[in-house]
Amino acid sequence: MSARAAELPWWADALVMPVLNLALAFLVSGGVLLALGEDPIECVQIMFNGAFSSGSGIGYTLFYATNFIFTGLAFAVAFHAGLFNIGVEGQAYIAGLGVALASLYFEFLPAPVIILLAIVFSAAFGAAWAFIPAYLQAKRGSHLVITTIMFNFIATALMAFLLVNFLKPDGDMAPETRTFAEHARMPLLQDVFGWFGLTMAQSPLNLSFVWALICAAAVSLLVWRTRLGYELRTLGASPDAAVYAGMPVTRLTVIALMISGALGGFLALNEVMGSQNRLTLEFSGGYGFVGIAVALMGRSRSIGIILAAILFGALYQGGAELAFDKPNITRDMVVLVQGLVILMAGALEHMLRPTVGRLFAGCSTTATAQEA
Amino acid sequence: MESLDTIAQVLASTIRLTIPLLFACLAGLYSERSGVFDIGLEGKMLVAAFAAGAAAAVGHSPWLGLLAGVGTSVAFALLHGFAVITHRGDQIVSGVAVNIIALGLSAQLGSTWFGLGGQTPQLQPEERFLPLTLPGADAVAGVPVLGQIYSQILSGHSILVYFAFAMVPLTWWVLFRTRFGLRLRAVGENPAAADTAGVSVNGMRYAAVVCCGVLCGFAGTYLSIAQSAGFSRSMTAGKGFIALAALVFAKWQPVPAMWACLLFGFLDAVAIRLQGTALPAVGILPVQLMQAVPYILTVALLAGFIGRATPPKAGGVPYVKER
User: Fold this and answer.
1) Which chain A residues are Cβ-neighbours of B317 within 8 angstroms?
2) Under a CB-based contact definition with an 8 Å cutoff, are residues A72 and A215 in contact?
3) Could you report the predicted ipTM of this complex, rounded to two decimals?
């Protein structure tokens, strides 16, 4: 029996496989913890408590999850069209410029207008940074993976150049913009709750989280319920079929990547406008790459991406608590766990599939035999 | 005479900065020519740099460091191979995973083992690969131009530098003049045909991935125990990706790969040299612009503005025997 013959029922594909792969990644991480002389069970307890046991912990978990929802959605939209956008990191970084533009240069406007402008600008800047690699891929056949990697580094250089030479206030040493005015920030959810007389624990969780959920719903509608989404999925499933059906492949490629870039750009809303309140160096901090893992874990579905993002958010927040509690462990451990999840859920996703497929095939034959 | 000295210094530093790129670029050449894309060069260099720094510090020998560096890098290369050759996983996703695992693992192990915030202990001179003086270098130092080239630019590097340059013709010979090389290129261009001719596609690809691991090991070892005196967090700083850019820029050819690496190394050396100094007519050249040049050049090449870069045909596609 070849590996392909073992088809899994859809629910096993959507639930059992990610959970198994995740368990494998955690098992290896536990082995590393053991090798470092720590008790993995205790570490998991600390991480779980850190992420979920207090209001503030949950707030932080959801704050990080917001970043992952944006970058996960960004990767997923391009992936539906068969495009591998590894440049979300750079697109999000450049989008920080858009947010800074709205919050610094339009601060004379009322808060809701600034927020609206920030959304539009961050999307526009992220999409613009995706445009050149997209155009080159569509028109010139340049390898998208390599061009987007190059654009990540060009973004790093460009942002450092702009921050050091133009954006940092005169006389300051740190390469960052001045702090945004109070009303030019994304309102924290604890403040929003306060307007209605409710209280909420302290955390950087802000309205971007709500925007992330709206985006998730919108992406779901776009991909599964619109003509554009249908065309994107056709392009992803079979580029030849898309050409044969007369779909505008060049335009679709560019549109898919620009939507992807715009979604990635929203990361800047959460990080720059919601939490740090100024544009800093490297604020995108690797969230773009983890978005790949989030999208793969979530099977490129919005609901899956939200769940996977919360998992990664919990890992981030729990990891911070762990690093605080255990002098031996640093936040690098979380980076390692993320890498292992990408390996198991992404690169090695076919490893367990034949085995699980045989198990299911075995179960269903016994079931039919009993019925007979 | 002073300007000549400056030029000599920049060129000597060009050579030093080129070496990690050259090793990694040749590493990628083996892998990608066999049809296995590898964006995990960066990660393999990083773990190799860490392993080499740690082993040299503990074992007090650069050779032990080299062994550890190459061994660790090969292990990571085999992990990539296991995922993408045996299990036909996505080569890009696997490369991303290798990079992130390397980043987390090297920093975490470093801080737990040595307690220096992710660094390995400062190496003593006898624990490193030190600059060698080529025979007669001191004697000809006084000879203008030619003597200077020999004594200041060509002499005074560690053994790994000469080994890296020796690898260029060797790689060319292996890839284009041996049966192994022909088969390696065949599985990268048309694996089905190679398979029909009785070549084990997976076997060749594993061999190529191991070659890639060995050379990445040299690249990382050079960084931590020849160029610097120990490992520091994320010390590869994107060099693996510049090497990847150089590989594309060289259109997957060994000798052009050397020129591309020398060009990118030269840009880096000039950027370091010019930091903060004003040029006539141009003013102060922004460092960041110089850093971005390799990436911009590569994009321009990919866009077809400077010739055409055609990757190996079967690159990125896992080989499935039965259809």
Assistant:
1) none
2) no
3) 0.87
- The list of chain B residues with pLDDT below 50 reads 1
State the best of B41, B80, B88, B96 to mutate against chain A, taking most chain A CBs within 10 Å.
B96
Cβ-based contacts of B97 with chain A (< 8 Å): 339-340, 342-343, 346-347
Choose which CATH entry (1.10.3470, 2.60.40, 2.70.98, 1.10.10) describes domain A20-354.
1.10.3470
The amino acid occupying position A171 is: G
CA A124 to chain centre: 18
* Domain residue ranges in chain B: 2-302
pLDDT digit string (tens) for A55-102? 899 999 999 999 999 999 999 999 999 999 999 999 999 999 999 999
Q: Which CATH number fits domain B2-302: 1.20.140, 1.10.150, 1.10.3470, 3.30.420?
A: 1.10.3470
Collapse the DSSP code of B13 into the 3-class scheme (helix H, G, I; strand E, B; otherwise coil) and give the result.
Answer: helix
A136 vs B98: CB contact, 8 Å cut-off? no
Side-chain half-sphere CA neighbours of B132 within 13 A: 11
What pLDDT is attached to residue A293? 86
Q: Tell me, what's the pLDDT at A189?
A: 87
Residue A227, helix vs strand vs coil:
helix
Q: What is the pLDDT of residue A2?
A: 40
- The residues, any chain, with a CB within 8 Å of residue B120's CB and separated by 6 or more, are B50, B53, B54, B57, B110, B114, B224, B230, B231
What is the C-alpha separation between A296 and A301, in angstroms, rounded?
9
Region of residue B301 (phi > 0: left; psi between -120 and 50: alpha; otherwise: beta): alpha
Assess contact for B296 and A153: CB atoms under 8 A. no
d(CA A25, CA B259): 41
Q: pLDDT value at position A3? A: 43
pLDDT in tens, B47-104: 999 999 999 888 888 899 999 999 999 999 999 999 999 888 888 889 989 999 999 9
